[in-house]
Please model this.
Amino acid sequence: MNRQLEIDRVSKRYGDVIALHGIAFEVRAGEIFGLVGSNGAGKTTAMRIVLGVLEADEGAVRWDGREIGLETRRRIGYMPEERGLYPRMRVAEQLVYLARLHGMTPAEARASVDRWVERLGVAGRRDDDVIKLSLGNQQRVQLAAALVHDPEILVLDEPFSGLDPVAVDVMSGVLRDKAGAGVPVMFSSHQLDLVQRLCDRVGIVGRGRMVAVGTVDELRAQGQEELVVRAPAAPPGWAAALAGVTVLDESGGSTRLALHDGADDQVILRAALETGPVHEFIRARPSLTDLFRHIVSAGEEHTVNACAEHTVSAGEEHIVSIEDQT
Amino acid sequence: MTSFGTVRLIAGREITTRLRSKVLRIATLISILILVAIAVGAKLSGGGPSYQDVGIAPGAAPLTAALASTASAIPVDLRTHDVTEEAGRQQVRDGKLDALLAGTPGSIQVVVKTDLGDDLRSVLQLVAQRAALDQQVTALGGDPAEVAAAISTAAVTVTALEPPKKADSQQLAVGILTSILIYMALLLNGQAVAQGVVEEKTSRVVEILLGAVRPWQLMIGKVVGLGAVGLVQVAAIALSGVAAAVATGVLHPHSVSTVSAIVWLIVWFLLGYAAYSLAFAAVASLVSRQEEVAAATTPVLMLLIVGYVIGISILPSHPGSPFVAALSLIPIFAPTLMPIRLALGVVPAWQAVVSLAGMVVVIPLLLWIAARIYRNAVLRSGARVRLRDAWRAS
Model:
């Protein structure tokens, strides 16, 4: 199966603000694709364009080689970042309605609703108004709303935010199942450990562009290798003079070093042993979080200047919040 | 799924939700109660047709037939009761009889409690004159019955050069009620549309919906669904009002003007609702919070109110006002002014046609404009979207 959801050089601007700058990536059938990036990077805009809720200025979104039209969109399961359900409508009734809007017959819709409220653990609340549910349960209903019409494609904006650990496990399980069934699953998240654990591939978005994309291991391989040395007796600055080494962090007898080309870990080990006992000596690839910080901070200066002009009023993600960038 | 199927599904949800609304039920119930109260009030205050009860003492009994025929010719609704003079006087004193006829055909005496009403006075005057005439005719050797027959066929033919456009009180009542009802119906249902649009924006459910349906389908589904409920509501209120009026005798059940007023009320509710609800939907899509709905819908509301106030303040005293007639041809004011003018029976056919044609032209135009504004504004949450931006942006 070579079907894929293809986002091909999509651009979108709101007035003077460029939200997407020719972003391009693809999500293959059966894979979980994580979209990460700081607030305002363009993740939500990209997802809304995939959904057809927004129109792209340039570029195209294709599924299985064909540009997505309303009929395909009906078969996408979508969870918007800003959760949305009718507050004063009963859970089951609302899900049946949404399933039918997506083209299911009444019987199919009811069967599917029964299945999903059971699976997501909200069967006991099916006849309550949505507004009476706890936030966590509303979130589960929201996921059910994205899944109830048995979608061919899943696009989830921050599906994990606000979930308790049990719900995170349920959600992860559902996403894996769906991917296992050949559905391309695309979601955005700020919980990078979760993304690292769950995703087959990850795309890092920065200022409307795809900055880096690949499997988690590929991405981590691009980062600098690190070395953690725990030598309690070492004086501060012991490693500063070593060739090919940058000290990232020194605290409590533990030193984190970045290794550049030409660095020799055995030389470092000997230098460490000269200061006294060495209890830990670990080579590590940077975590996705470190990598993300690194990539985001690389584009920092431009971004901060740009976001001073971001005054367009709309509750959308393209409004860059300055705190998050600095 | 076809567009029709989608719109029907959306309208269906609106109908189900709306019918569960307590506000709707209470508003409908109150409207019905008010109409019933008006009908009962009209009956009690004697505003409608009522009978005059006249007691006839044995001495005046020969006058009974003449009294009845004279009364029906004027016309005055009269019921005669044969009573003894004693009992009759007592009943007059108790208010059970409006008047008691005593004496003889030659010298009629009328007993009343305080005063003799004008209607009754005319009738009795004529009866007395006829009795005197009959006596004279008999004395001259003629046949009083022949004379009476000759007199009753004599009539004047009236040709009015400028027929007055003064509506009768029944038409006026129907007109005013029509005006209030259509104003309330447009106001309540239009605002329901506005609130529904904003509710979807506030709750952000609109974003999920628009993943599956087109914006215009969502907007029209809402307008159609709420309109269907509104139609049933208006029809229920109008019919129960008429039923109450007929039951209390305030309205004649088969009055053509009443039936046509209701038909026109429904027609104009549909046209007015179509136009105003689209305008309400468009302006409501500009805001994201329920608190802002009132401010956003004010301009539309003002048009509705202006039409209503002009109608209710000018038409009852000047049904033929050319100013109101001119306004009622403009689609903005037609929904609030035409139904009351039609109920008053002062609309030439060409005006009715022009105002209908205006609506038929304006509604599709409004639909196009509203759909465009709605599509551009409905996903922009946060601050209020300026109308100009909603129009331009794609």
Summary: The two ends of chain A are 43 Å apart (CA to CA). Chain A touches chain B through 31 residues (CB under 8 Å). The domain at 224-284 of chain A is CATH 3.30.70 (Alpha-Beta Plaits).
